[in-house]
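tmp note - UDP-3-O-acylglucosamine N-acyltransferase
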Amino acid sequence: MKESQSNQVSKFQFKASELAELIDGTLKADPELEINGYRGAGSVSAKQLTYAESDEYLEAAMKNSAGLVLVTADLYQDEIPAIIVDNPKLAYARLARQFPDKRYYKPGIADSAIIGAGFESGEDISIHPGAIIGDNVFIGDRVRIAAGVIIGDNCELGDDILLHPGVKIMAETWIGDRVEIQAGAVIGSDGYGYVSDAGKHYKMPQLGQVVIEDDVEIGALTAIDRAANEKTVIGQGTKIDNLVQIGHNVEAGRDNLIVSQTGIGGSTKLGARVTLAGQAGIEDHIRIADDVTVTGKAKVSKDIKESGFYSGIPAREHREYLKEAAGIRRINKLKKEISDIKGELEEIKNYLKEED
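out:
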């Protein structure tokens, strides 16, 4: 797929031929057809892009006079303006990245925004009312900062970043290109580090920073703590859901998926393509290998050195977990059988007493 990496959100409108070229698709429409946005098949309009994976989706797209439909060769019909691709949903997701989020596209700096000394920026930026930006901050091209965002001193943000309302970026944070952070997330808050003595707890200084690499997405109300020293790192392409807690000095590898209500203890290191399902818990100082999936509500209390699926408390290989779960079900069945046998024995004993 030929995807622009340095200028993804600079255009509001594309020709159908341009979109087809970006995804190596086969165009079955007027090459000059202009498309200015995207929507699902049920709400798409005449100038917008959508996708269809079934006859039902295709019927909805046609009913709404979709401007352009991404379809497989099997679903394509002659009367539909379309791009034929192998995976319409994937093609839609990737083309959607080419369009800016117009809700926050308002070039310039709002009068009520507060901008610190030494501020530098690239071109075509949007800073909305009530945003506060500290001293010595740099933001790149096409960055959109929504209302109420706070960016602390000495932060650096790359190109094509979208910060939703109320995001807090604390001092010294570094953020790469094409990063999106949802409302209320806090990046760079102090890590939870204390030394205890005689029943009292003394805060350890949290002097490090957070590094968010390119193409990361962070959900609403997620918190990523700064390192005690050095860096907390979120690797390129990682996608983080809402309400996730990531402790200080965590290093998440490339293309991780971290689902809602997961908690990751400090100084844990995740490999590449790790998936942590909802409410997974990872203790501190854990090492997890590449291509590991931790299922929902599992607790990882020791290193995982091999790829695969892990479940349960404590987390172990999924097959082992299933065997144990099946064993527990068998035990419950055996308990009932034993109870039934005990009842029968009591009846026999009572009968024998009566015979005596």
